[in-house]
Amino acid sequence: MSLVMKLILEATSSRTLSQFAEQCRAPMPLQEKLLAHILKDNRDTAFGRAHGLGELQSVGQFKRRVPIQNYDDHKPYIEAAMNGVPAQLTRANPIFYATTSGTTGASKYIPVTPESRAAKSQLTRIALCSVYRDRPGVLSGKILLVISPEVESYAPSGAPCGAETGHAFRNMPKALQSVYSSPYEVFLIKNYEARYYTLVRVAAGQPISLILACNPSTVVLLADRLAQHTESIIRDVRDGTLAVAGDIPPEIRSVVERGLRPDPARAKALERAAAAGGGVLLPRETWPELKGVNCWKGGTVGMYLEKFPRFLPAGLPVRDMGYVSSEHRGSVALSDEGSGGVLAVGTNFYEFYPADEERKPRPLDLLGADELEVGQRYFIYVTTLGGLYRYDMNDIVEVVGMYENTPVIRFVQKGKGVVSFTGEKLYESQVIAAVASSLGPLQARSEFIAAVGLLDGETPRYVFLMEFDEDLADDSAVQLARKLDAALGELNIEYAAKRESKRLAGAGLRIIRRGEFDRYRARMVAKGRVDAQFKILRLTADAEFANEFEVERKALAD
């Protein structure tokens, strides 16, 4: 860590965390003050005039006057702003448009203003200060970071459009940028394999004390590439070279190679690390100074977290990234335990609706942060400094505790991660739990991709797409399909009832060719999906998705 960065954290951490705690002691006055600021500041925008924001004096009036919104409701204002028409959603014109990762459809363009960018940066500082407080050595070395490019395109107005992670990186203080293992240009390498090789090759030549990636699947991918290219990486570190040929533009290669030097001593250390790792480089031996990982821990990523002990030090702290999206940063994790984070009441205005409620919410039905109950799950709606109003995130969060007087929330799943052919209402989280309980010893050898609801003739069934490190015999595949089917019935009584009544066929299993998911991810990234935030629904009724993978073996529970 640079001396400047160390001095900044030592000087500001305690005060920053104390101020955040003070905010959390009285969340609702802060929420009301924030909403009043948003309404007043944007009363003369196109959206403000259409909804009478200048006339609203309370949260109640806001609920009565402004309907619940989705992206399509915001889209005309966003498109007008992108075409250079001023004062559409916010008084300040957007300086950037964050593209979503496309989990549920085509990319959306989320406006970022100077004020909303500053709000996200404030939450990032709080998160960093909490990590430094709990693990001062976490920044003793370099940070292995994975992000996506800031600029993918430009709006007609000239404002850049791209990944939120890249935008955040490019707007960090220079002192903080200097602690990352790779220069920003590495993330501009379009070739998937070349980019990840460069990331691990550059990092292998340095002490890494923190790995930071939104999705834990990316951490697994980094470990896989480190092991896969062991010999080449050691040779490159010894010689000060970059072995990837032809897939890196010369101008990017030049930037990367300026930071490389022959390092025979480091190469010798890597040889010893590979020997300790059974012949391949593993992160725990490659970077003995590693003090932690920051990544998502909530939702449907548990299968990847369970792979961490294969290549990370035992007991290594893993802290949740918080509830983060292109639309907003919704929480700050203050502990390595669990996947909960403190609701960001100082930077976004929040509303909620019970996730188990059958009826669609009406504008006055939404709850405030002070009306939530620990242990309950809610859909979340956000009003931001960047111009989103009562925005339906289609996310389900669970309240898992309180910090001071502010809810601690964890992300559970996308609301659309629900499939129901016959009233079974199978949730993504139930699918994940069924896989976890069924795999047993196969867990370490498997890659669960998704469960796809498909029609088998006239009867629907759920087919699990999985990839295994080694061949799975036919009888083992059938046995696993039966276990998955039974687990779904135990987790969802409606599923069990529909199976008993023959309205659902038994679960199916498709074992796909090894490496298929990796190839799928590379194809999607090549088509414009945001690499650093890459994620898919683990439960879907999209039959075309199932056809993306080459199948080696099929098995049915019935």
Look at the helices and sheets and give the structural class.
alpha/beta
Compute the CA-based radius of gyration.
Answer: 24 Å
Count of distinct strands: 21
Amount of helix: 25-40%
Mean pLDDT: 92
Classify the beta-strand content into a percent band.
15-25%
| Largest sheet, spatial ordering of strands | 9-10-14-13-12-11
Main sheet summary: 6 strands, antiparallel
Could you explain the architecture of this structure?
The protein has about 550 residues and is α/β, with parallel strands linked by helices. It folds into three domains: about 5-90 and about 340-415, no CATH class; about 115-320, no CATH class; about 420-555. Helices cover about 40% and strands about 20% of the residues. The strands form five sheets. Strands 9-10-14-13-12-11 form a six-stranded antiparallel beta sheet. Helix 1 packs across helix 6 (about 115-135) and helix 17 packs across helix 18 (about 495-500). The chain is globular.
What characteristics describe this protein?
alpha/beta; 20 helices; 6-stranded antiparallel β-sheet; 558 residues; 5-stranded mixed β-sheet; globular; 21 strands; 3 domains
Write the layout of secondary structure elements.
Blueprint: H1 3-25, H2 27-41, H3 46-51, H4 59-65, H5 71-82, E1 96-99, E2 109-112, H6 114-134, E3 142-145, E4 153-154, E5 160-162, H7 164-170, H8 174-177, H9 192-204, E6 208-212, H10 216-228, H11 230-239, H12 250-258, H13 264-276, H14 283-286, E7 292-295, H15 302-305, E8 318-320, E9 331-332, E10 341-343, E11 348-354, E12 377-384, E13 391-403, E14 406-414, E15 418-419, E16 426-427, H16 428-439, E17 446-456, E18 459-468, H17 474-491, H18 493-500, E19 508-512, H19 516-526, E20 539-540, H20 543-546, E21 551-556
Parallel strand pairs: 1-5, 3-6, 6-7, 7-8, 17-20, 18-19
Antiparallel strand pairs: 1-2, 4-5, 9-10, 10-14, 11-12, 12-13, 13-14, 15-16, 17-18, 19-21
